[in-house]
Every structure is written in C-alpha cells, then in structure tokens.
C-alpha cells in the first residue's frame, strides 16, 4: 500500500533529542497521588515534615490539616502520607523542552521555534511511588485508648502483687542457662525466610530515615538540580 505525498503530515519543526548525563549517587522518582484528582491536590504549603529511605524508595510526608479547635486548644492534626513503589509498566523518562531566549509562547509551535535553538532533553526515571494516607496514627491512638480502658488503675495492682511475692528480698537466685543448638537452614528454608513479609519489614526498618527539605519549582536549588539532571547549559 502506497500513500501519496499529499497524505503525509507536514513537518512543522525538527527538534534534536538529547539524553541527560548519568549522575553518580543520584536518582529520580515520580510521585503519584492516586486518591486525589488533579483539580483537588494536596496543599503542600501545609507540609510540616518529610523523610526518605533512599535504598527502599520510601517517602513519608506530614501535612497539617486545617481543623483547629479553639475550645480544645490542641494543635491542628496531621495527615501522614507514605509511599508504595509502583511497578514500571514501560520505560519511563522525564522530558524538558529547552528553548533559547526570545520565545514568547503565544504563537504556534513552528512560529515559536522559528530561528531559535530548541532541544528536547530526556532523563531516565528510576522509580515511581504512589503516595497514600497511612492509618498508623489513628491505630496507635486507638491502641492507647484500649490499654487505658483495660487498665484504669495504671497497673498498680500488678506492682503490689509483685512486691508481696518477692518477700522483701532484693537479690535473686542465679539460674543456669542451657546452651541451645539449632541446625543450619537449608537453601529452601533460607529462600522462604527472605521472601517472607517479616523479613521484608526487617530490611526496611533497618535503614534509618533521612530528613528532607522541600523546595519550590522556582527556587535556586531546584533550578540547579534540574540543570544537572537534564544536562542544560549553565
């Protein structure tokens, strides 16, 4: 099947594509917020803290909720967002169209780029994380309330029983400890242990948190990182 020249789309502009440099010790992560529509995003002006575990690609954010109760006199509550690594369905990359000085952006693509140096810079995307609210804080509060209801006296009766049983003696008798022998794990057992959820939690909790400082899109630090990421001229 052949097509005539009249059926071909007109080429309005040719833009060279430039791959960004590989930066040692740096990675890029796309944050998604699947529970919030585009017309109702989170208010990051209320951000009170952020943390990251770089190796785990785990991020936590604390957002203040504007629900202050003057009668209670308590500080406003916070909503904690935690990340979940999403699987890559395809090879993602971030793109930045760099246009030379003088472009107004009011005309069409061909007119705006006419006579100007333009280039499309691509940088690889290392991870995709979806941010969702965590229920750790409400669950902790509910657990504390249940403990207080189950033990309203603050455990005083338990302490009295321990004193009566001790008989006033301060020193305890020494107990002999028998050695415990445990056989070595087989390859199948070791593989099952490493693939368990408990092992994954232990590996995640072993990495300490690092505090983050958020920068706006127009800050000098953000502009410099963007320049290094896409290999833009200084």
Automatic annotation (TrEMBL):
It comes from the Eukaryota. It comes from Emiliania huxleyi (strain CCMP1516). PANTHER family: DNA-DIRECTED RNA POLYMERASE III SUBUNIT RPC5 (PTHR12069:SF0), DNA-DIRECTED RNA POLYMERASES III 80 KDA POLYPEPTIDE RNA POLYMERASE III SUBUNIT 5 (PTHR12069). Residues 163-173 have a biased composition (Gly residues). The lineage of its organism: Eukaryota, Haptista, Haptophyta, Prymnesiophyceae, Isochrysidales. InterPro entries: RNA_pol_III_Rpc5. Residues 138-176 are annotated as: Disordered. Residues 140-152 have a biased composition (Low complexity). GO terms for biological process: tRNA transcription by RNA polymerase III. This is Uncharacterized protein. GO terms for cellular component: RNA polymerase III complex. Coiled coil: none annotated.
